[in-house]
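Design review, sub-item: ligand-bound model
Attendees: FS, YL, KQ
YL presented the inputs for the 1HE complex:
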Amino acid sequence: MGNPTRLSEHVRLEVRDPIAILTLDRPDKRNALDGGTVQALGAFFADPPPEVSAAVLTSSGEHFSAGLDLSELTTTTVFEGVLHSRSWHQPFDNIQLGTVPVVSVLRGAVIGGGLELAISTHIRVAEPSAYYALPEGSRGIFVGGGGSVRLPRLIGVHRMADMMLTGRVIDARSGLDLGISQYLVGEGEGLAKAVELAMRIAENSRVTNYAVLQTLPRIAEMGPHEGLFVESLMAAISQGSDEAKSLLEEFLAGRAAKVVRNEGTR
Ligand code: 1HE
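KQ shared the predicted structure:
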């Protein structure tokens, strides 16, 4: 059974051992992200409870997030603007390069900083209402939550430039084709699918999950020779764990689940 609590004014937390469900809970402002919300997410993923092996990030209301709370920018100086952007980088890094895989549920607006938050999670489950946009150009600002680093790696510099220059809005189906989400489910089915995936992820060896989060994005930035060497180290570390030894023994004794065909992209 869960134990709903609050991480901050606009973030709810429910721990359903072995997963945590975090909910952006500011529907009246379309889950616009204020500093307290971003810092609460960052603090949680910097030091998740030990019983939590995977997490789901979802939202209240019809929209995932309308992005940065624009009321926070109206009086900032240039230097405060730098600090503001930097104050988003660490929390989103805590998600992407953390210890707990995060599955997000995307519906309605996934805009600006909301999209930057979404793409710092590892698995994104979209509902048909989801749409992705970067209206920064029309607000006279630039992305500041890591979007210029993460989004081109997903969809390419040219597509991100199109979104920023022309205000192009990408729908849920195109988002799936481009890799913004990895899953597209029916309307209202996103949370159940995300919980199912998080529960499945939580069954993995923690060492393997850690290796996926820490190693894959770093190897993607390395040259092939360095990448292969780091891969060999991570392979040896994970194979050497007690958990790996017992899981391999289970398979060889015919007691482990076999790999079965899936149902396609959903
Ligand atoms: C907000 C925000 C916000 C809504 N900051 N208050 N993001 C944007 O440029 C997107 C701006 N938002 C919208 O385009 C629309 O609100 C939506 C398409 C998301 C939803 O439309 P709708 O008709 O359902 O809602 P609404 O009536 O526009 O908004 C409801 C309330 O939320 C309203 O406040 P109210 O007091 O009048 O009720 C809005 O002002 C408020 N609201 N979005 C603050 N973003 C680290 S850098 C990242 C840079 C960015 O993220 S730029 C992109 C910002």
